[in-house]
Amino acid sequence: MTSGAVPRRPTPRVRHAASLAGAVLALAAGWWVAVVLDARSAPAVTAVLLVVPVLAVLVPTHRLEPVARVVLAVGWVLALDTVVAQVMLAFGVWDVAAGVLAVTGISVAVWVGVELATRRGDRAAEERAAEERAAEERAAGPAVEVGP
Predict the structure, then answer these.
(1) In which residue ranges of the chain is pLDDT below 70?
(2) Is the Cβ–Cβ distance between 52 and 108 less than 8 Å?
(3) DSSP calls for 50-79
C-alpha cells in the first residue's frame, strides 16, 4: 500500500543534533571497548577501529554522491588507522586500548568539526538564497494593477 506522500527530510537543526548525538555515542563506544573491555575483544576492537571512522565521514558528508562518500570513508579509515599505528609505534607507546582511544578521539573530533562546518555552510546557503529572493523581488518592482 503506497500513499502519494513524499517523505519529509529532517530539518537541518534536527539532523545536526542527531549527528552530534551519534558522535557522542561513537565516543562512548570507543571508550567502552578500550577501558571497560580493556581491548580484549578482537571483534569489538575491530568494529570500533572500522565503524567509528567510517561514520565520522559518512554522516557529515550527506550532500555528496554515495560513491564519493564511500571512497572518502574507506580512504579515511585506512589513512587514520595506519597513521595512528605508525606514530604510536615510532614513539614506542603502542597499546591496543590507547590505539582505540586515539582513533575514536580523532574520528569524533573530525566528525564534530565537519558537522559544525556543514551547519555553518547550510546557514550561509540559506542567507544567500534569501538575499537572491529579495533581489529578485526588488528587480521585479511593485506590482501594477490594471483597472477593469
Answers:
(1) 1-10, 141-148
(2) yes
(3) HHHHHHHHHTTTTTS-HHHHHHHHHHHHHH
State how far the Cα of 125 lies from the Cα of 95, in Å rounded to an integer: 44
Q: How far apart are CA 27 and CA 97, in angstroms?
A: 13
User: How remote is the C-alpha of 86 from its chain's centroid?
Assistant: 25
Distance CA 85, CA 82 (A): 5
Domain segments of the chain: what residues?
Answer: 12-127
Q: 141: part of which helix (H) or strand (E)?
A: none
Instruction: Name the DSSP letter for residue 127.
Output: H
Question: Kind and range of the H or E element at 108?
Answer: helix 96-140
pLDDT in tens, 42-56: 999 999 999 999 988
C-alpha cell at 125: 546557503
Is residue 96 within 8 A of residue 45, CB to CB? The reply is: yes
Instruction: Tell me the backbone φ, ψ of residue 76, rounded to 5 degrees.
Output: -65, -45
Length of the chain: 148
